Amino acid sequence: MPVEAAIVSIGARAASALRRHQRWTAVAQFERSLYLRHGDAFVCIGDPSIGDGPLNVIVEEGVMPAFAAGSLFEQAAAPHPNPFPLQGERRGRGNCATSCSLSLLMPDGTVLSAELASLWQPPAWPDAVHAALARERISAVLDAGRTAAPAASFIHAVRPETATGDFLTRRAAEGLRRLRRALVPQTAPDFTTAATTLLGLGHGLTPSGDDVLSGAVIMLHALGATETATALAEAIRRHMRTLTSPLSCALLDAACDGEPNAAMFQAIEALIEGVAITDVIAPLATIGHASGFDILAGILLVVEATAN
Amino acid sequence: MTTILNEVRMSAYLDSVALMAIAQRLQALAGVEVAGLMIGTPANLQILREAGVLSSEGAAAGPGDIVIALRATSEAAAQAALAHARQLLDRPRAAAASSASWQPRTLHAALAQSPMANLALISVPGDFAVAEARKALHAGLHTMIFSDNVSIADEVSLKREARDLGLLVMGPDCGTAIIGGAPLAFANIVPRGDIGIIGASGTGIQEISCLIARAGRGVSHAIGTGGRDLKAEVGGITTLMAIDLFDADPATTHIVIVSKPPADEVAALILERVGRSPKPFTICFLGDGERAIPKNAHAVPVLEAAARSACGGGKPWVVTTQLPARRGAVRGLFAGGTLAAEAQIVLRGHNFAVASNAPVPGATRVGKVLEGHVMIDLGADEYTRGRPHPMIEPAVRDEALAAALADRRVAVVLLDCVLGFGGHMDPAGHLAAAVTAGRGKDGPLVIASVTGTDADPQNRQLQVAKLEAAGIVVAPSNAAAAELAASKVRSAG
Question: How many A-B residue pairs are in contact by the CB < 8 A criterion?
Answer without folding.
Answer: 124
